[in-house]
Structure formats: C-alpha cells, structure tokens
Amino acid sequence: MQTHIGVDLHQRFCYLTAVDASGKKLKQSQVANQPAALRAWLRDLPGPKQVVVEASGFWPAFARAVAAESDRLVMVHPQRMKAIASARLKNDRVDSETLAHLSRADLLPEAWMADERTQQTRLLTRLRIALGQQRAKAKNQLQAVLHQEGFLRPVADVFGKKGRAWLAGLALSPAARMVVEVWLKVVDQMDQAIAEQMRELERMAKHDARARWLQTMPGIAAYSAMVILGEVGEIERFQTKRALASYAGLTPSVRESAGKRKRGGGIGHHGSATLRWIMLQVAQTAARYSPAARAWYLRLKRRKPPQVALIALARKLLTAIWALLRHGVCFDENTFAQA
C-alpha cells in the first residue's frame, strides 16, 4: 500500500503530511530543511512512498535530500493547484495535507523537474543575464548623476574611450565626481565578470550539438543558444511546436464560451519569461539579417502593429527551433520562407 506525503516547502523548514491509500493520516509535523532530519522523518513510513512538493527555487536541494527515502518525487505547478490557491483556509498544515490527498486521488498537475545538466546551464545563463541587468542599472545611475549636474553627453557611449575622456574632464561637484568614479568601477567589474561568463558559455556551446544547430539560425549566437537550451531543457517534453510556444508565453489568449470563440487577446505572459525575452531579442536580430524572417515580418507589419508583428516572428522562430532540436537539423532559409 502506497504512502503519499505532501510537502509545504519553505526555505528553512517544511511541513509534511503523510496519508495512506485510504486517506488515513499517518504522520504530520514541521521538519527543518536538513537532509538527515528529512530522511529520518520519512524512514519509518510504510513504502512505497510518493513525495509531492510545489515548484519553488529550492526544490533541487530538497529532492537530493529525500531521494534515498522516497520511491518517487512529484513536483506540481503552483499556479494550477486550484485546490490550494482558492482555499479559504490556507496554512502549512492544510496545504501539505491537500497535496497528500491529491496525490492519493491521482489529481496532481505535475510540473517538469529539470535534469542536472539543465539546472547547471540555467544557473550560468541566468547569472549572465543578472550581471547584464546589474551593469545596466549601474550605467543608468551614472547617467542620472550627469543629468542632475546638467551635463548632456556628446558621445553615444559614455563608457567607451571617448566617453571616459569626456567624463574625466567634466567640472563635476566633489560628491558627483565620487559617485561617477564609483559607478565606473562597478561597470568595469561587471564587464570583467560578463566576459568571463561569456567565455564559459561559448565553451559549453562549442561542445553541445544542440547549440550548434541553434546557431545556424540568424539572431542566435552562443549566449542566446545556451539561454534557450537552459530554459527549454529536454525538447521531447514538448509534443508539438505550439506546446513550446505556449510554454514561452508567446501564444495569444483565447476566450471561448458556449462553443463560440471570442476575440483573442494578447499573449498570456505565462511560462518562461526568460525564454520569451531571449526569443524577442532573437526576432529583432533575425528581422534585420535574415531575408526570409525580414520578409515575413514586413508582410505582417503591414496589417499589425510593429510589436505584435515582432511577437509573431518570435513565435514562428521558436517553432522552427522546436523542429531543429527535435530532428537535429540546421536552419534553412528556404524552408522557413515556405512554412
């Protein structure tokens, strides 16, 4: 008889509820998020044991901790857990118990658990993205000081050689000079860290056949290829190209009632925001350098606003990526133009 364990997971502790196949509560308590404590809690329960946890940023550590004492670990999508999300009474005990009973009834909206290779790729690509965001913030802070001091930049890039020479000669107030120098140091540090990450991502892309297929598509270099692979993971989990586009939140929302389809709305903004962002970057570049992509984009732009046409191109390119990864082929301009 299988034992079902629902887990309400937090950063420092979790609340666990164990029930048997008939729904009888076997055990329930709060446990510190320490491998030995978690395994000890599970050890005395009758097996086989199915452990259910909602997706969160620290599920991989929990999975490694309980692997030795669980027969199956199931991760569920929190946004699709309506029984928990819409409950009037919500606390750790109730949430963990609800997960246990849904497991017993086989009503779990399972989420994909990324394999170790994908997790490692995501860590590195998201670090590169975060570094870029931090550098942009530092640059904006420096620009704000210049505006406050009443200086308009005479060059396009304040952080290039000409820009830095101009900054060095400005008659800034003592406090403003100190702030500018500090932000310049931060930008330099970010530049160095980004360069190191880029070298690592390029090395990874060189040894990954999937990345080489992706880089045959206009707009995709080593960095964007690794971001896509980190967010997509195993392409086999997407049975159709539309499923991949939906995961990226690039499909229009549809409202339907009584068999009548109402006007579709904008994109859903669900799924992977990172994959959606990188595909929009890829689409912008492809629209400039790929004849087939540019022609397709311009045709749609005659009937739709530019941003809508760009989103549609990003979706079309992502469906092409699905084919590239599923079949192990390179991008072909003629095939894309005819699709």
Q: Layout of helices and strands, plus pairs?
A:
Layout: E1 3-9, E2 13-19, E3 25-32, H1 35-43, E4 49-54, H2 59-66, E5 72-76, H3 82-85, H4 92-104, H5 116-149, H6 161-168, H7 174-206, H8 209-214, H9 222-232, H10 241-247, E6 256-257, E7 260-261, H11 273-289, H12 291-301, H13 306-327, H14 333-338
Parallel strand pairs: 1-4, 4-5
Antiparallel strand pairs: 1-2, 2-3, 6-7
Q: Which radius of gyration do the C-alpha atoms yield?
A: 25 Å
The coarse silhouette is: globular
Number of domains: 3
Distance between the termini: 52 Å
How would you describe this protein?
The chain is of the alpha/beta class and 339 residues long. Helix 5 runs antiparallel to helix 7 (174-206), helix 7 (174-206) crosses helix 9 (222-232) and helix 12 packs antiparallel against helix 13 (306-327). The strands form 2 sheets. The chain has a 5-stranded mixed beta sheet with strand order 3-2-1-4-5. Strands 6-7 form a two-stranded antiparallel ribbon. It is built from 14 helices and 7 strands. It has 3 domains: 3-104, Nucleotidyltransferase, domain 5, CATH 3.30.420.140; 116-204; 211-338, no CATH class.
Keywords summarizing the entry:
3 domains, 14 helices, 7 strands, two-stranded antiparallel sheet, globular, alpha/beta, 339 residues, Nucleotidyltransferase, domain 5, 5-stranded mixed β-sheet
Give a quick summary of the entry.
This protein is an alpha/beta fold. The chain has 3 domains: 3-104, YqgF/RNase H-like domain (Nucleotidyltransferase, domain 5), CATH 3.30.420; 116-204; 211-338, no CATH class. Helix content is 56%, strand content 11%.
